[in-house]
Amino acid sequence: MSNLSLRERDAATIAQIGKLRFSPLSVVGGQGNRLIEEGGRSLLDLSGSAGPAILGYGHPAIVEAVEASIRDMAGASLLLYPNEPAVSLAERLLAITPGNGERRVWFGHSGSDANDCAVRVLQAATGRSRFISFIGSYHGNLSGSMGISGHTAMTHTLPRPGVLLLPYPDPYRPQFSAEEVLALLDYQFETTCPPHQVAAVFIEPLMSDGGLIVPPPGFLNALEERCRRHGIRIVVDEVKVGLARTGLMHCFQHEGLTPDLVVFGKGIGGGLPLSAVIGPKEIMDHAPAFALQTTAGNPVATSAGNAVLKTIEREELVERSARVGALFSDTLKTLAAKHEIIGDVRGRGLAVGVDLVKDRKTREPVTATTTAKIIYSGYELGAAFTYVGLKANVLEFMPPLTLTEDEVAEGVAIVDQAIADVSAGKVSDTDVASFMMW
Ligand SMILES: Cc1ncc(COP(=O)(O)O)c(/C=N/[C@@H]2CCCCNC2=O)c1O
């Protein structure tokens, strides 16, 4: 047994290109909504491992489903053979997801591969090669999904040729109003982006990594109206905010949207690698052997997916997210009376963001260093959470949907103390230097 710490061994073995570390936390276990640090300390997880742990850790429903499916494993490849858990999960997803016409389900391993698949099959099936997406959007880290993303963390890779990136209207920082964005789109349609060349719009119904932004009411409907006028498909990326997180089963339902394709990831697997795309049969049946991944839709991951959907229903997690999420946001808002740095608390259900500012009047974002220090202090005080935003100034809370009211109180008290500690200069620039990653 090595006498090095897990963190030291990680530094000596795991590639930096796959890391996005916000604190020194090294995890050796997890139960409920808590992570167990090397050395045994328990931390409250307000991040859900960046979203997938929507049932927390070690949930009996997932343990039971995964154990049963792996003990009598129906192969490991949906592309070679149908398996009961995958087909059952597809049936469940089709039943709970509003949409028009006959549809089909594709399974993958991640939000990235799901959006990658959607881009490729839409271009092939429609014969249209342009896409519309949004500045700040994060659809994935594979070539296709990155190519239609607009996040500042991806400027190392050029966008896909022909992608039109529009500003995402932000009610707290209305640099571009919804009306101005739509006018820009209309102008693009008249000039450099002929609508008949556009295969699809990719949109997050609540922009997460771009800063936890809830779009202005009516924006998505106005966008949908333009898409319908020009035969442009609508792809809703529910990877991070879907499946009960925002107080409805699907985040797009807050906007009355009827998407053509819906992309699921993160929480659908309850922590196991699983994603899905639901789309019209005429698109998703474009051609056999078009979007293959050997272990996608395997019986173990899809058994976890079935357990997730059944647990959402059995434990009434849609209602719970609305209720506990409102408590979380409201309690965070009380901190604004104590901390001038809190400019805005926003989100839907248990997708919550705290926008940190230098000045409430100008709404100038704090520096990434300040945000990172608050995350670091939160870690020292016993909670795990992350930051997002194009200026790295938004605390992101995507906790398990099983978060309790007591844990809300515990978590907000830690955020309160972390902000106070940073304001008092208790965290140094050196403390966070190695955690300034995006
Ligand atoms: C709306 C949305 N769509 C797709 C993805 C990509 O999902 P994967 O990271 O599972 O490939 C994501 C992933 N978002 C990043 C993953 C990198 C670490 C930072 N936090 C995230 O949630 C996403 O938020």
TrEMBL record:
Known EC number: 2.6.1.19
Cofactor(s) required for function per UniProt: pyridoxal 5'-phosphate
Recorded GO MF terms: 4-aminobutyrate:2-oxoglutarate transaminase activity
Keywords: Aminotransferase, Pyridoxal phosphate, Transferase
InterPro entries: Aminotrans_3, Aminotrans_3_PPA_site, PyrdxlP-dep_Trfase, PyrdxlP-dep_Trfase_major, PyrdxlP-dep_Trfase_small
Entries under SUPFAM superfamilies matching the protein: PLP-dependent transferases
Family named by the database record: Belongs to the class-III pyridoxal-phosphate-dependent aminotransferase family.
Protein name (database record): 4-aminobutyrate aminotransferase
